[in-house]
Every structure is written in structure tokens, then in C-alpha cells.
Amino acid sequence: MKKSARRAVIAGNWKMNKTPCETTALINEMKPLVKDADCGVVLCVPYVDLCAALEAAKDSNIEIGAQNCHWAKSGAFTGEISADMLVSMGVKYVIIGHSERRTYFGDTDVTVNQRVRAALDAGLTVILCVGEYLEQREQGVTGELVAMQTKIALGGVSAEELSRIIIAYEPVWAIGTGRTATADQADEVNGIIRATVKELYGEAAAEAMTVQYGGSMNAANAAELLSKEHVDGGLIGGASLKAADFAAIVEAASR
Ligand code: PGA
């Protein structure tokens, strides 16, 4: 399968930003700007903004996601949200394994796998994040590391379920730093992720997989990153908080 036959997806990761009122305003501003997108458009918002986001995005091509979910269906997990709760609201996507969750909130490859399983069981599409710290890149272990993160996260995921997985390569040193991976660096690691999926599920599944790049992607650098064979979209943090910037990235992915 050629890159052009794969579905590009541009997903915004709002992180811990925007109130419900601000969410409504920002999505209303974005809607007309992205309505002709020839790619998937997803906004992953804070839990408390999900209601407002779903309402504002109704009857538009914008789909709504959360930024995490717990692995259990329900129970004594104070402060957590289950995948079933998200689905019951109408949420379609969930980010799992973002490096900020791994770094600040103790997510491990094993709990990432548990969350992926729970999200798939509930019917969600998962945006699974993998990526290396700067020290790991300097030690030359990036390829091995992302392959391992990918393999563990996909443990117990069937070939059929794989169509509801998007993988986002996010080098930790590029997130929120303004320091983007070069297009060749992104392409190389995205290619390693695709090769890992091929090893596990075969060529057709690997070729069909949407592999995004994330880490300081913005209106100025998106076109070059997205031109690469293995870069099928982006996971966008900072630039997804401004309607015009996000729309410019969506446009770059639609070309
Ligand atoms: P950034 O964040 O675009 O602000 O670097 C990307 C992400 O963390 O998903």
C-alpha cells in the first residue's frame, strides 16, 4: 500500500488547557476552517471539556477524543475514568501512553498495554504514543526502544483490532520544546514502528497503519514532515490550541 492510500489523521492534544466555555469557542472557530479536510481531524480534550466538545463538534468532521483512560471497567480508582464512561458519552478516540503520563504519572509499558486493551474492548480507537528521551537517542537505542514500546503496548491486540490503533511517534525531547525532529528522523523512526507492526501482524497490516509524528509540529514545519513516506499525520500539542495554526496543519495533511 502506498502512503497516499493510508488515512492521514491530524489529532490535537489539548493537554491541561481550556475550560468548557473556551472549548466551545475554539471548536466553533475551528469548524469552518477544517470542514474540507481530506484527512481525519480529532481533538483530544480534558475530561471536563468532553461534553462541550462533543456538542460543539456535532454535525462536523471533527471527532472527539480523551487523553487517557483506566484499564478497569469500574471500581475503587479515585480520580480515574473508564473507557466505557468515555464511550457512553460518544467519545471515539483516546490517547494512551503519552510521555507526560509515563513521566509524571507512572504509566509503564505494562499499564499502557492494559489501558490499550480496555480502550479497544470498549470500542474506542487508540492513539498510542511511543518515543525516546534525548539520552536514549544519544545512546543509539531509539529504534530498539520504540520497537519494544510498540510490542508491549500491542500485547494481546488482534489483527482485526489493529485497525483501531494509530501509533504516534513522539520523541520526548521534541515535545513542547520547539525543537522538532527533522523530517528524516521522523520518517526513520516511523518506518521502524511500521516494520515492528509488520513483524507482528504482517505486511498488509503494517502498510495500512496510520503512524503519526508528534513533537513541536506546527504550521511552518508540518508540510515537510507530512511529505515523508512513513509520516501519516500528526499529534499536535501547542499548535492545536490556535484555530488558524491547527487548520494550517490539517490543510498540509490534506494536500
Ligand atoms: P507539542 O506536543 O506539539 O506541544 O510539542 C505534542 C504532544 O505532546 O502530543
Detail the topology: elements first, then pairings.
Layout: E1 9-13, H1 20-34, E2 40-44, H2 50-57, E3 62-66, H3 83-89, E4 93-96, H4 99-104, H5 109-122, E5 125-130, H6 134-138, H7 142-153, E6 165-169, H8 183-201, H9 203-208, E7 211-214, H10 222-226, E8 233-236, H11 243-254
Parallel strand pairs: 1-2, 1-8, 2-3, 3-4, 4-5, 5-6, 6-7, 7-8
Helix pairs in contact: 1-2, 1-11, 7-8
The protein binds 2-phosphoglycolic acid.
2-phosphoglycolic acid binds at residues 13, 170, 175-176, 214-217, 235-239.
Task: Outline the structure in words.
It is a single chain. The protein has 255 residues and is of the alpha/beta class. It has a single domain (9-253), classed as Aldolase class I (TIM Barrel, Alpha-Beta Barrel), CATH 3.20.20.70. The chain is built from eleven helices and eight strands. Strands 1-2-3-4-5-6-7-8 form an eight-stranded parallel beta barrel, surrounded by five helices. Helix 2 links the parallel strand 2 and strand 3 (62-66). It starts with 8 loop residues before the first strand and ends with a helix. The structure holds 2-phosphoglycolic acid. The site of 2-phosphoglycolic acid (PGA) has 13 residues, from strand 8.
